[in-house]
Design a protein that fits this description.
It is built from 9 helices and 12 strands. With about 290 residues, the protein is an alpha/beta fold. The chain has a domain at about 70-120 and about 200-285: Rossmann fold (3-Layer(aba) Sandwich), CATH 3.40.50. Strand 11 (about 250-255) and strand 12 (about 255-260) form a beta hairpin. The longest helix is centred in the last third of the chain and has 16 residues, at about 215-230.
Length: about 290
């Protein structure tokens, strides 16, 4: 109860202003007042699974704002609703009640075709299970959503895909099948695929969960690079090393936010200080 009240007190320190698109908000963060642009506003979100007469409220009375250019990490114990929340935000799961406002529209009310277009053109997705098409090359996997998108020529999609593969250091593997490259190279290709349509926001669910420490480091370096260039990211993880890259970490238990930690943008030069701060906070969460 104490943690929940502390989070509510944090929320009360923000003052919202209307804008024509997402909504600008003044936030009191780390002793400073900053102006941020809202991308998502989640209000009174509820997600209930039913099995016969049994109802399981995975997320209940959940409120959250996501801000442009933020790197937001969602943490919590297993079964706390982290991935379910991510899938609801990304319009991959329907919700039971509440609102998810994106670009001044409640996306929970959209029909299937509109949701498909939204996921294709505005959102990027990265998962623990990488989900590359096994009989397509890395390049072919990356261009696939680009070729399905509107107002794109094949040449522009292939040019963007090759540039992404080069940027991520896997251009030499462009014509190899997923089975012919390492797990880290597969995940880098999956990140390139998520970026091919220049999404407004990237949703990532345990993207380092199936990788060794070296490949996890490479992948998280890419996430930091993307965020430094202005990409908005929402990432679910159990990995403290991945969470260190965020400027905002949200901790949830039983489908509710109990605390939030705000950090300066990630810099490798102050890693130890950052790790100490996150460790202390996670200990207070009994993580």
């Amino acid at each position: 109860m104490h943690l929940t009240n502390r989070y509510k007190n944090y929320i009360k320190m923000s003052v919202s202003l209307k804008s024509s698109r997402f909504g600008k908000t003044y936030l009191f963060v780390k002793g400073k007042i900053v102006l941020k642009e809202k991308i998502f506003t989640v209000s009174n979100l509820q997600k209930t699974y039913e099995s016969g007469a049994v109802k399981n409220n995975v997320i209940e009375n959940f409120d959250l704002d996501i801000y442009e250019k933020d790197f937001t990490v969602i943490m919590g114990p297993s079964g706390s609703g982290k991935s379910t929340l991510l899938y609801c935000l990304g319009a991959m799961e329907s919700i039971t009640n509440g609102e998810i406002i994106f670009e001044n529209e409640d996306i929970s009310k959209l029909k299937n075709n509109a949701l498909s277009e939204l996921r294709l053109n505005k959102f990027g997705f990265i998962f623990q299970q990488i989900h590359l098409v096994s009989n397509l090359t890395l390049l072919e996997n990356v261009v696939l959503p680009g070729l399905a998108g509107p107002n794109r020529t094949n040449n522009s999609v292939y040019e963007d895909a090759n540039n992404l593969l080069k940027r991520f250091g896997i251009s030499e593997a462009a014509n190899r099948l997923p089975s012919q490259v390492s797990g880290g190279e597969q995940q880098r290709a999956a990140i390139a695929r998520a970026l091919i349509n220049q999404p407004i926001i990237i949703f990532a669910d345990e993207p380092t969960g199936a990788l060794n420490q070296n490949n996890s480091q490479i992948v998280m370096d890419l996430f930091s690079e993307l965020n430094n260039s202005g990409q908005t990211i929402v990432l679910v993880t159990h990995d403290k090393r991945a969470a260190l890259r965020a400027n905002r970490i949200i901790y949830i238990i039983d489908g509710s936010i109990v605390s939030e930690l705000n950090l300066d943008p990630y810099q490798a030069s102050n890693l130890q200080e950052r790790e100490d701060k996150v460790n202390e906070w996670l200990v207070s969460m009994e993580w």
